[in-house]
Amino acid sequence: MNTSTLAAGTAVPADATPSWSLPVDGMTCASCVARVERAVRAVPGVADASVNLATESLTVRGAPALAGAVGDAVRRAGYEVPRQTLTLAVEGMTCASCVGRVERALARSEGVLSAEVNLATEQATVVAAARDGAALRAALLAAVERAGYHARLSEAAEPATADDAAEARHRAEARRVAIAALLAAPLVLPMLLMPLGIEWMSPGWLQWLLATPVQFWLGARFYRAGWHALRAGTGNMDLLVAIGTSAAYGLSVWLLFEHAGHGMDHHLYFEASAVVITLVLLGKWLEGRAKRRTTAAIRALQALRPQVARVRRDGADVELPLAQVHVGDLVVVRPGERIAVDGTVVEGASQVDESLITGESLPVARGVGDRVTGGAVNGEGLLLVRTGAVGAESTLARIVRLVDSAQAKKAPIQKLVDRVAAVFVPVVMAIALLTLLGWGLIGGDWTAGVLNAVAVLVIACPCALGLATPAALMAGMGTAARQGILIKDAEALELAHAVQVVAFDKTGTLTDGRPRLVDAVPLQGERTALLAAAAALQAGSEHPLARAVTAAARAEGIAVPAAGELRAVAGRGVVARVGGRELRLGSARFMTESAVDLAAIDRTVADAVTAAQASGHTVSWLSEHEGGAARLLGWLSFGDTVKPGAAAAVQRLHALGLRTVLVSGDNAGAARAVAAELGVDDVRAEVLPEDKARIVGELKAGGTRVAMVGDGINDAPALAAADVGIAMGSGTDVAMHAAGVTLMRGDVTLIADAVDISRRTAAKIRQNLFWAFFFNSVGIPLAAAGLLSPVIAGAAMAFSSVSVVGNALLLQRWKGARR
To answer: What is the value of pTM for the model shown?
Structure first.
């Protein structure tokens, strides 16, 4: 039987290549089957591939770790492997080597497309083919256990429960540190008294009694983790500590028995093993405490989730668990309470504090028709809110997911660090062995050789390397989130710090996006008829200009006729039949494309239009088309107010050394007027939505890093094309999905803040990596040369990890420009 045709899970001969399967979506015929098989067989390491069209599954012969490459090949062939994402909480990791081992163990599991482990959050994010969820979860948990760690699904615990468990573990670690310190203190006391001229040494048997529980009870974690590393064929920090302290302890025991009964105490080295373990435990405790502070932002957001809501049903107010509240329910929010759901105010008015969600320091007024966000705090008024979103779909839940996901992802530079960490421990062990042999064989002092080798093993710190990048990312992203800046992933942050050009959309980004009708000038007939016809064309549209027209017609009490055969032309305007006539309303470009000769208009009209555009107004034209003939009926001008902080925001970007560009679909006069008012460097006007991405591409020429700021659906392609897309939180979900950075409120000053925090975070990453590499490159040679005792080496190693996390935590002091 050909093993390539076996389904996943079927036994294969011991000498055969493993066989496993993936689901594939989008296949419709035999040619699809052939294309997928051809693409997958081209993947290096794949022995064979066969597709079953009936079951829509792909069976692959090759290592399960190839699943990610196979998935990419399927996608390049034009099909999709349906996928699911799981998050695991992993316990027992101590350094970058542990991260690599867990990632490899997960990647080897069947169906896993990618696996990323974050040492700072102690979480693994696994993307796998969508299949039997229970079997996949069991396989992933078993893979982590085989690698020597313990894992659980992070969704299994409520945030409060998880925090309580973490706090309990933190207290237990503190107790172990305290006990180790008490036992090690008498051993290190002679070293402290020596500079004072006091020579005292406790009996050898007492030193042994004090050091043994520290070595084998409190230090048992290092032996367990080191053994798991050896079984997995790798090394980690625990293995270095276990070998180093065991060597010092073993040497001391040998000397103790060697000189027993000689009537005098020989110098022993129990203090080296006991104090090193104590210092490493202390360093791990301080490191864990600092890491909890880096996740403070996400925990603060989770704490905003109310557990119950007061729902009005059948005229009575009842308190229900949030899980029982549905879209459309009326929720009562009393003064001082936290709003439980996203929704729209249908009754009442109040001031609402949204500071922890949007970063806006002042309460904002909310009344009937206004949207409110779950997690915000109601002020002095009673509100009745119609539920728009609850649970996982609420704004707060999406923010938590976004920040959590962003912190879990790795920066591109971290991948280089991971490669270094993979060879770090074997290299250190080789150096320690050379140190031992060098001092013993060449110097003839095996005791010094053992102690110096111990110092080499202990001072080497892969932990600092592993924490340098994720600690800075978590602190920076968490701090940004508190100020209303959501950074989607580490790559967006790493690109944002190098941005050289910032391109803006105009409407809704630099202006309020709520234009008003300034004038309606008829060229044929009465003004009322012109406005009525324009309002008819715009009656069903949500475009800002459309709302301005309908609002003006409503304010003037104009009866708006019905429009039929309505059709929107993207980036140009709208076409409809009103009263039996075909009417077109839109830009000058639309008129030209519709065979309307704008050059033939009266000079007085042309001058008036030019003056309106020069003052920053947007101009739309209304035309009638019958039997191939076209004639202008009139023109409308719209004014939009520049946002109060826009000029200051542009100045801040200039101060940061950035060039600014305005990219707008508006007419050149209006765009230039806004650019001149704000001090924007360059203007690209009358740009169609589909051309905005092309403009961004032109700005990127020569390797220039470009950020695009927008808020609408028409900005989404440009946001995706830019190196960094920045979406205004007041805009559409499509724009926010396409962007790497989302500003949770429509405050343009946050753009400079986003660049600033990105630069500061990138600087912290560089600082941390420099000190981590510098520390190891200087400390290891000093230890090998005998210039560092094991005790000093242990203290230095503990300090290096804590200092890296502490340096990252300095980012929490950042407040932004307006705070």
So the answer is: 0.61
